[in-house]
Amino acid sequence: MRYSISRMGALMALSLAAGLGVATANAQDLKGRELNVVSWGGVWTEASRVHFFDPFEKETGVKVNIIPATGDFDAMVRLQVQQNALQIDLLDGGTASLLRKDGLLEKFPPELVEKLKAESREGTVREDVLQYGTTATVIVCNPDMVKKCPTNAQEFWDVENFPGDRAITGNWTAPLFFAAIAAGGDRHNLMPIDIEKAVAKLEEIRPHIKVWPESGAAQEQVFVDREVGVGFIWNGRAHVVKRDVLPQLELYWESATVGDDGGWMVPKGAPNADVAFAFLEWFSKQHEAQAAWTTALTYPTPSKELSSRISPEIAGSLPVDRDIVRISGPIQAEQMKDMRAAWQKFITSR
After folding, report:
1. Fewer CB near the last or first residue (10 Å), C or N of the chain?
2. Would 3 be classed as within a structural domain?
3. Same domain, yes or no: 255 and 286
């Protein structure tokens, strides 16, 4: 998809004023600078390169260096900080509440926050995070393989009335939240969860879980290969399977979970923080490019114009404007250590 991108020139010079803590760069100062971005890799990074990084490079003269994520984004930042060798300027993922708790996130300049809010949907801009690419985890079912599709967590656990081989993503937070809902947790006020009760609930369903796919590609493959008929997986991956392979696939949102803790973030002390802030303001104005990225990946971007620039089909696959389970990042951060330990004990005891 082609799209037009406005010139930086005077607009950038006006919008990126200095004197805001860690200042944003003036337009004339961008040429020849670098921006080091940690990204997820695969189709995510390729779409980001095509729609964001390459156009930004072309317009500003900034060299964008894409750093593949080596596992945990947060751990990458911590390791570089501990070694006094921070090279990362911008993250396109990670856990904001954990980095913030440890003083490892830069606050956006106040004027930048206001400009981001002017271009973005309500609730997507925080003082140190611009949310995008938010992934929900949903119940997915192939009605050709099961007698009856479960539509919520309680039905997912009801293997007598809703029989069939199942999969639950092995991305460790989602299974615990899902189990907490199945155990009777209030979906509108789920956090903090009862970890012990959630693990006990996972033990109940364990004999009926054929696979715990960790990666997005693996989540797709278990449905494509008809290894399972029911799963709890990422909404974007489910959409790709439905679009490309199994049009009969059904997605159910009642017990879907979505976090509020990821997006664009700038590590504290980033060597090119001013360039990162310049990129974020530029990004916020690229409404057509954001829509193209969402269309390619079926994950939302913060653009306030998103709904008017994407198809109804894509809009129907996004965790936007839905009554689903919202996971509070700050509360999750308080439980993170115990949740991680409980999950590791559970999954390694198979």
Report:
1. C
2. no
3. no
